[in-house]
Amino acid sequence: MVLSNTIRAILDSNFQRIAKETPLLELLFDLRTSTVFTKEEIASLRQCDSLRERHHQFLVLFRTKTDADFRQYYISLQNHRSKNVQKFGQRLETEAIAAFKQPADATSHLNISNESEIGYRDPRPYFPVVAEMIGIKWMKLSRTLDYEIPSRLIDSECKSQCDKAVAALNSWYDKHGQGATVNKLKVALYEIGRKDIAEKIGSSKDETTAARYSRRISIPDTMQIKEYYFTYVKALKRGQCQSDFIRIMFIGPENVGKTTIMRILIEEIRVYHSAATQVVENTGKMVDFSTFKIYDGTQQDYFEVLKRKIQGAVEDYKEKQIDMPNFDEIESLSSPRNETNRDDNDNLSDHIKETKAQRRQIIRKFFKQHLRLTEKFNIDRNQYGKLWDFGGQAVYHVTHQPFISGNSLYILVFNIAESIGNKVKARGGKEARDTYLDRIKEWLTSVIGCSNSNTEISVKRNNQAAETYRLPVVILVATHGDEIEGKQDPIATFDEFTHKLVEQLPSYKANICSSRIIFDCGEENYNTSAKIEERLRRREDLLNIIKTFAQALPFVNKPIPTKWYFMATLLHSQENGIKNIMTTSEIKEVAIDYGLYERNMDSVEDDQELIDMLLYLHDIGELLFYREEITKENIVITNVEWLVKIFRALIVLEGSKTITSADTLEDYNIAYTTGKVSKRVFDNALSPFNLIDDDKERVLKIMEHYNIICEIKVDVASSNCIRQFIVPYLLRPNVTFTTNKEEEYVSGALFMGFNKSNIPYISDGIFYCLVAACMKKWNNQFVKLCYKCAKYYIRQSDYYMIIKKSESYISLEYSYQILNENEDLKVRQAIEVQRPQFFIMDTFKKIINDRMPRFQAADCSLYVTCCMCGKLTSQLSHEDQDHKGRIRCQKCNFIFDSPSLDQWGMKKKDIIKKEELSSEKAVNFIKCFDIIAEKLDQKCLFRFATKLGLEVKDIDEITMNSSTSYDKVLKVLDRWHQNLGSKADIWQVTGILRNIGNVLAAEIVEEHLCSQN
């Protein structure tokens, strides 16, 4: 079919008005959605240089369309928000009807009786007849009836063509009600060339036959609900609802009863002992998800809750639209008082008065229908918790950090029958190497220490005075209370546990809520009526605490766009282009396809709204959103459990039991004993997930960002080698390396750490971040890893640097092979020149700033062990040393000579030796100055100069009289050298460079000094 001459004439005669009154760019999305124009045609219209050219091109393109397309065009105009545009659309419709000499419903030329009773009857009895005959043309019929019918969604949700046709017809009727008539259905059928179906409607097929067909066709419930959403697309685009979801994560050591507490919380009263939450050797569910109503704890179907929330938001939106001033205006236009007191200049024709009265009646009727609907539908105002239960085994900890959010509640479960200093007991009674305190420290550091939130909330419970907490909040809950019964007071034991925990982690005390809730977990009499009643009381107490915090959280109950919830339902469908891993541009396309955003959504503001939506869905646990700085592109994981499985498959290297190749098996053996994993081992572990190469790289980038793995960069000469990665968590406690003290010298230890009042504990994750960062600095194939320890070979100076995790500190040692007497002097001089301890400390502080942003102001210090009390002391500078280089212990006040200070070149006498060495070797100041002048950022010049001791007037003079940045830096350094003369120490300059953040320049200068020595 082509555009008729009649419609062409209408377009030509109205060209000036089309160019003047129609917002063509705003209509392009609707015209593309209703398939009037193709994607290429839309693009050509957008590329036009001027409005006149665009409208001319539009007219040229429209001449190739059909009369049905013209109908879609004037319907789009009538649906526009501008009243002038709506009127123009109505005019085009009137002209088309008049041109064909048809009655108002445009049906006489199609041999349809406008006046007959059949023409205005309910069309639903004929839907099955149409559906049986329409076949693949159901989508064309759908768009002809109403382009807003969600035909794409229907196509994906329904299986047969017949079901799709019925769903589309029902959607049309649901939207238009009595406006959907038999005549309009027949008109649409004629327009798409199905005269055979149109003539059958109202003829010999009676309603009994139609009913027989209808029993054979069913529509999925989910389809009906989603049709409702699309019917109210404006509410989805513009409406708002409350943020009523909170992620609640169960954390704590293994085998303490986390899963049991979660099941009790969601109203499973008769709970028996559950198995450990999926050990890593299995391939089943890795993380347990549940949704419950916070008010009473009843378990909920998450997607049903989402549907209710969206439906309620739509109802709210409809009610607000009805309550708008326009409704009152229409009411006032028809009231007798307004009619009698009308201004003389406001003379309306009878036709206009009649039209306004009709509109008033329509709005009244709509309002009554809405009230009837609200009586049947109670809007859901409840808050819901999304429960997460991770496995507690230590090997799991590394995989948790990517899922942690500061906007979640955490429930830390512990076994009150075990002392906090006892070794963790796995199922079967086997003891782990770590204590309960160690595991709890790991959890709290991951949750609290790695959060960047300092938000405080005020909480009032049980009519007591308000208490202040800092986010994220961790609620302590105990289990195994029956195992201490009769021995000691359970509440006193709980308080003692809390006290010891706060004593060890003082900076986290504002985040911890001591609930004093203790559950029993023993098998004996576990499900007696008395035990069940007691358990219910404990459950009610825990629910009340959760409710209290939920109501105080700043991000809860704030209005959010309704489309965010709708997007959550789409992203979980795994259909219609939804994948487990997507880019934000792909997410944006999905949102546009479903009408949640406009096609021309290119502004920064619109993109930010999309980012805000993804961040919100990340916080409530709907998806995982990784920003550009992590993966070089914004990545969205729509299936959380899928990513957990991938992480853990790589951590434990699943698949080794099915390998038969001796070569690959050797790769696995190397991985388990050295922590080094080849890319082909990773590929084998990932084979069950069927990832494309791009998605593999994205997953590896995420893991590398969180230091779960670290790629070993190979030399150019060996670029053909298989890619290798370090996976520290593969290493088990029995993987160690020994030192032959007869052949290898090992220095005394220096310790790095923070004051416990600031950063009380260094987690394994932070330690392995440091391991990875140092690997990038000293990258070679000779790094050795063992349990919580790394040994790096420093090739240029022929010694090893050993970094260990020692409770809440990082231990540093160096070692070298004893070949001759000169070897000791060579390594000692290298340590003095390179000062690796300061590089490692700078790297460590940067990691703390990145991973634990709330502690950026904390000072990192070096410590040595007191030979008297065995405690660590940090007053090591030469100002703190006496004339013999001895220091005073901060704990016991004992003055002692530390071998570590001597071996690391930090004793006062060593500093003097270094100055003498520097003068004897006549350090090339000019070369060092040249390096600094090239590398120093102009923005840091003033700060650099002031730290060198230059006065402001001297800095201003240099700045004004020098043209380039290079010259300015060089003159600053020359002035500093002149001021100090023979006392000028280039090492002081490198220290200042590090202090102002220019570590690269400092390292290059130090390497130059090392080569001179």
UniProtKB/TrEMBL annotation:
One record GO biological process: signal transduction
Region feature Disordered, mapped onto this chain? 328-352
- What is the protein name for this chain? Death domain-containing protein
Per UniProt, the ranges with Basic and acidic residues bias are 339-352
* Pfam families in the record: AAA, Death
PANTHER family under this entry? C-TERMINAL OF ROC (COR) DOMAIN-CONTAINING PROTEIN, FAS-ASSOCIATING DEATH DOMAIN-CONTAINING PROTEIN FADD
Q: Which GO terms describe its molecular function?
A: ATP binding; ATP hydrolysis activity
Death domain: which residues?
123-205, 943-1009
* Domain of life assignment: Eukaryota
